Amino acid sequence: MADELRATLEVEAPVTAPTDRELTVEVGWVLAGAFDEVDRRALALARTRLAELITTWFPGFAWRFPVVWRRELRPGSPVEPIELLEAATDERDHGRWDFVLVVTAAALKSHYKPFALGAPSSALDAAVISTQRLDPIVEDEQAEEDERIETIARRVTALAVHLLGHLNDLPHQDDPADFMYDLKTAADLDRMRYLQDRERMEEALREVAAERLEETATYRRPGLARRRGARLGFGLRVLWREWRNIWEAVRDVEPWLFPLRFSRLTTAAFSALVFLLMTAEVWELGMSQPPLRVAALALLTLAATSLYLLQRQHLLRRHRWETRFSEQRTVAGIAATVSVVLGMATTFLLIFLAVLLIGKLLFSFRLISGWAALEPTWRHYLTFAGFVATLGLVAGALGASFEQEVYFRHVLLIDEET
């Protein structure tokens, strides 16, 4: 029986003829863990329907929808979406897919909402779907088996289209019948019927279907990926070639919200700020520094704290088995790096403005002149604010290093909780 159900899942979905290699798009499915018979049949139906829908909308591409069943991935419920996404990207790299959808029967852990049905990651070209809340038995215990299969299949298909839209940078729509509607419940998936931004998605797919950098003759040589110089050159070429996709991934992360999302970072930084503001020696030391020295120290500290967090949270980790170049992994790594730098820069700016405001409101010229043995001017206040913000950034980085790794990666790599 198990073999028969697996055969049902692994049957090839309808695809167009591969007439042009440059227009081939592969959307891999990774089934994570165990599924009951209803889920298996529903997923097989959803995969076929998604293939039919996508190939009808975009007939100019040769579509492939391979499937891999990872039975050993038996996550507890709720499961962190990022853990499944990172496991799925290994399959994506192995199969050289363009996108990957990982499906689980477990509930997804949500950090911003009461629950999540799915989660896209444009940086990883991957998305995760949970079938737990898609089953009508959650709402009606008397639902028949055929009704359950049909409803789950319909909802998985709609959710897969919605997530693929996110991976191709489609915005949300206000019409509940549009697949890019910002859904709130599983029932919202039942009303989705059309995709308004198909032309925009087709344009994005043409970029996806183009030959990736690692597929060119330059980077297909055996052993080249192990050379540090070659990897640096590859990374620079990816940055030049994919800067728009990198920026879109960074924008989806919203690094300017770091101080709100990482409470340990903000708490440590502003705790240091309070202590430093009440110390006369700090005022004297900070105001006596040349502005250019403070600016250079701030830039150096921003680079050092960003690198520290990237290493501490294992965002620059390489797998030992990774012997090939991967444009997708490189894009994700660059996007994560830029996001951390911008997030720390936002934290620095916030501390700088807070110090400047508090200093001007609460610390008079007469008080400061008694502490620092000088006649303070605006230049001195600005220099002092930069000096304290630099020290506060160091404290914030130490605080952020204690954030749970899985949560830190969730913030950096997952666009939204759908």
Automatic annotation (TrEMBL):
GO terms for molecular function: metallopeptidase activity. The chain crosses the membrane at residues 262-280, 292-310, 331-358, 378-400. It comes from the Bacteria. Keywords: Membrane, Transmembrane, Transmembrane helix. InterPro entries: DUF2391, MetalloPept_cat_dom_sf. It holds the Pfam family DUF2391. This is Uncharacterized protein. The lineage of its organism: Bacteria, Pseudomonadati, Rhodothermota, Rhodothermia, Rhodothermales.
